Amino acid sequence: xxxxxxxxxxxxxxxxxxxxxxxxxxxxxxxxxxxxxxxxxxxxxxxxxxxxxxxxxxxxxxxxxxxxxxxxxxxxxxxxxxxxxxxxxxxxxxxxxxxxxxxxxxxxxxxxxxxxxxxxxxxxxxxxxxxxxxxxxxxxxxxxxxxxxxxxxxxxxxxxxxxxxxxxxxxxxxxxxxxxxxxxxxxxxxxxxxxxxxxxxxxxxxxxxxxxxxxxxxxxxxxxxxxxxxxxxxxxxxxxxxxxxxxxxxxxxxxxxxxxxxxxxxxxxxxxxxxxxxxxxxxxxxxxxxxxxxxxxxxxxxxxxxxxxxxxxxxxxxxxxxxxxxxxxxxxxxxxxxxxxxxxxxxxxxxxxxxxxxxxxxxxxxxxxxxxxxxxxxxxxxxxxxxxxxxxxxxxxxxxxxxxxxxxxxxxxxxxxxxxxxxxxxxxxxxxxxxxxxxxxxxxxxxxxxxxxxxxxxxxxxxxxxxxxxxxxxxxxxxxxxxxxxxxxxxxxxxxxxxxxxxxxxxxxxxxxxxxxxxxxxxxxxxxxxxxxxxxxxxxxxxxxxxxxxxxxxxxxxxxxxxxxxxxxxxxxxxxxxxxxxxxxxxxxxxxxxxxxxxxxxxxxxxxxxxxxxxxxxxxxxxxxxxxxxxxxxxxxxxxxxxxxxxxxxxxxxxxxxxxxxxxxxxxxxxxxxxxxxxxxxxx
Length: 684
What we know:
684 residues, 3 domains, alpha+beta, Leucine-rich Repeat Variant, 26% helix
């Protein structure tokens, strides 16, 4: 959401007074009646209405639904009222580029206290609101202020929520937060920062933490824009990249934190498809580039750095003298484009361009949505004004080791939608920010309901399933649900089986290995086995390794993914064999997994990965295979092993040497400056 604010920001003073809010004491009763839908629906199968409006929600930036059907809304009230933007705080430009930690950013604020003092940064809180339709008439009739504890000077704009049965996760710079409400009174009793250190820079407003979701491996995934990060994990390891966006993952308590993907600009929401593939939609800089659909690949680098914005916004404040670029390297070298041979080869390219203000994203599955929407994404395309904002349906299809854009169409328009969620009841819920680039009194939650009574009944049944929960259900019932049409039911069942502990292992192993079982049930069984392995039940390795030779290529691909993600050391030999699989998707994920499983310097693994690189050429070339190999070699190859391939006859092998050495800023790159290949020389 809130991609780039060019002309609009000129009219927003960074020192204007805080907006007048309706206090909780003065909050009027909810009307408990629907109002007309604000936009235009381009799908004959849906009808809409306003679920709740101002003042019961203000500036709704995102929303989520908990398993009981209650909706949590994140209010972005600090937009320009406590959170600055570098384009309107030009005195901080040089300091911002030097900032490496959140403490650096706070010290920079204090150095410019004559412009904005500490009070300015704490004037307005972002808030979490909990809403509920208790009487079932299709609109909100109960509201509580869940938390307004988000107005410390370092706090950003709170942009995403994951509402689960026992906890609510909230992304608000500088931390991923976990809130709980054990007495269920609608007011959070605890608010814990489980991972801290995000937002080391000011950068552009809105380039904050986003996208919190639960992956099929049971871990939390989330993103940040180019405000960057400096995170010290529980082991004391430092993860840092100032001025770069990223995708992260961690366990539910914040432990085992990883930077999963690098070099993004302002990725917003994340979504997994039915087969465990992760996608995000990255924003344009309005500098001649385009918004991007990204198949998020483990340990990939999409190439963005905040410095790419400099020629357009910061040059006059930096020490460039008379030097100027007519356009940034990002644009001039086509780094934002889908793959071409004349762009920097170290950059992991997007698979397509869609929209120009990507914000909320949800994956639609199950029988409660119209048939033509199933197994597609809905992406909210926020462009400021309601009349030019829309919601786009995006369909992808497999393309070798990756994907391609199958089609896109405008599903809904005329509403300034920042986020979208598929409710357990089958309805589609939209966070209508209200339009514009600052706080306003126009926000609402809009809802679309299927016209088909059969879809409505399926949605109602799904909602009842989630309200009851899955923890107390029997294993045989849960096993049946592993093949359910709705991804959310399958995943909840998988997690419930894993919670059974030792009892779960033979059940999941049997489902994963059952050739006649539905593909999706087998995948969820595999992901559950990966969870068990990480929980210390190492006996699950046998079933995971066996799945690497399954009849179904999707099962083999995800067996590779699980082997790597859970670092199943027992899978090393099978992964080496999988590099020769007939499916390039299996090959891609096996290469990445081998990079995680094999020890550093493993000669057999390095040799096998480079052998695969030599085959990745001509009509057989796939850029995703190249970046899978780069991901793996970056982790497993020692510098002297790379040097051994420096004189290889294979251009692809030499190029991979350069790409790995580039990541390490190695002086060994110099030997490639006279390479016979122009591509290799350019990358060196």
